[in-house]
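Reading a protein record of the kind used here takes little practice once its layout is understood. An example of such a record is reproduced below.
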Amino acid sequence: MVDIEAMKQCYFKNRLWAVAWSTFLLAGFVAVSGCDRPGGPQRAQAESETATEDGARSPVDAARDLHASHAARDYAQIEKLIVPDRQAETVQMLRATDRLIDAHQAMQSAAAERFGKRVHRAFNLGEVENNLGVFSKDIDVLAQHFKGDAATVTIQVASRVPLLRARFEKVSGHWCYVPPQTSPASVAALDELTAEIEQVAASLKNGMTPLAYHNAIMQKLIPGMTRVAFGATVDETGIRVTDAHEADGEQ
């Protein structure tokens, strides 16, 4: 019999981690964020109509191209729309995040089929798709502000506030996105978590019990999320092992 109450407790703990973890992912894809001043997007949109030179594509166009390319998983095109020194690391991070999203969706489907929709929500990373800044699934590109060969593009993700602002720079006559730097350790942790989710999905298809599913979430997947966010080894309680060693006076 499925222990719904245990799954509910697991779900609420997972939700707390998911909010913090999604914030970490967002920081990896948006260079500048914050609330736009009232009326800002409308004024900037009017400005943008005359800001392009000789019909050249604007930062707003580049942001929309990035979004469309990500929807098509066209990483080669995405790379061309990013400043050269951030291309490889950003695409690597984006690929790793997309692999995670695909694995999560497959696991959700397997859990829903095995246990029903109420239980499969015990672990849900669905918000990740709309915490990727300009690469998010549902965005509106609202406006652009220029300062020489630099610009900021204001976007709204999934009708939420605050609005976000992404940085762009002109490179060889073309507007390119300037994402924050990403950590190779975070990419490795994302791949590790993806592999763990894929293992759980396979176990679900092979008859995984509700208790085993609950334990996998608590002992593998939630600590895996912690590794992505904090870059440290964690035990099954979700406490960073490095912190525990420091508290015990270990080096």
Summary: The CA atoms of residues 119 and 209 lie 12 Å apart.
